[in-house]
């Protein structure tokens, strides 16, 4: 048995970060690889959603942790990521995995220490979602759940694109929103520096103070 963990939305300006973990036996990894399970960023949305159902029915279990914008505004993002990953490892530890694979985003010391303390082999590496099928499966779970969550937000706030700062539709929506309403909606990570150039008159610090 092995655990694979990855996230979606870590660098987004809008919406939550979703961290997902799957636990799966080695005998099923070849099947997932054979049907095209790989890093979610390399797949279309339609393909991810089809694979989601197959992954969900193939793995022994999966779990997710949502990290919302207000949390990201008030705490260190790496620490929040490590905490979410640790929660997933502990929740799946009942399966007594041999290996825990995690897509590395920082030093990851708390995560590595927890894995070793539990007696598992630590496989915490950069681009784990590309290199290891168990992390790829987790990346698909995380991405599909975030995409669906974003769809629900758009029903309330309109189409803001992907929610990432590199998306022109997201920036256009943000500027349009602030022209009509100086109060940032709760779906925005108010501490993101991109807001300083996008909506300088209404940029809000993570302490809730208006800076301009």
Automatic annotation (TrEMBL):
The keyword Phosphoprotein does not apply. It catalyses: Endonucleolytic cleavage to 5'-phosphomonoester. Its cofactor is Mn(2+); Mg(2+). A divalent metal cation binds at residues 6-7, 103. Residues 1-204 form the RNase H type-2 domain. GO terms for cellular component: cytoplasm; ribonuclease H2 complex. The keyword Secreted does not apply. It is an enzyme of class 3 (hydrolase). Keywords: Cytoplasm, Endonuclease, Hydrolase, Manganese, Metal-binding, Nuclease. One of its GO terms (molecular function) is RNA binding. Its EC number is 3.1.26.4. Manganese or magnesium. Binds 1 divalent metal ion per monomer in the absence of substrate. May bind a second metal ion after substrate binding. One of its GO terms (biological process) is DNA replication, removal of RNA primer. It is found in: Cytoplasm. Belongs to the RNase HII family. PANTHER family: RIBONUCLEASE, RIBONUCLEASE H2 SUBUNIT A. Endonuclease that specifically degrades the RNA of RNA-DNA hybrids. This is Ribonuclease HII. It comes from Saccharolobus shibatae. The gene is rnhB.
């Amino acid at each position: 048995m092995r655990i694979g963990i990855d996230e979606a939305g870590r660098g987004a300006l809008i919406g939550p970060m979703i961290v997902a973990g799957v636990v799966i036996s080695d005998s099923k990894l070849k099947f997932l690889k054979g049907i095209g399970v790989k890093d979610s960023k390399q797949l279309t949305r339609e393909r991810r959603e089809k694979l989601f159902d197959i992954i969900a029915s193939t793995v022994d279990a999966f779990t997710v942790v949502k990290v919302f914008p207000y949390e990201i505004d008030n705490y260190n993002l790496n620490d929040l990521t490590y905490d979410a990953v640790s929660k997933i490892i502990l929740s799946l530890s009942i399966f007594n995995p041999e290996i825990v694979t995690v897509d590395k985003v920082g030093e990851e010391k708390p995560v590595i220490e927890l894995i070793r303390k539990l007696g598992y082999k630590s496989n915490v590496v950069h681009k784990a979602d590309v290199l290891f099928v168990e992390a790829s499966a987790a990346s698909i779970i995380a991405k599909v759940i975030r995409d669906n969550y974003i769809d629900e937000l758009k029903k309330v706030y309109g189409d803001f694109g992907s929610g990432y700062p590199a998306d022109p539709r997201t920036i256009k929506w943000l500027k349009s929103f602030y022209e009509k309403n100086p109060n940032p909606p709760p779906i925005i990570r108010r501490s993101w520096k991109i807001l300083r150039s996008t909506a300088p008159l209404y940029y809000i610090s993570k302490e809730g103070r208006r800076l301009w």
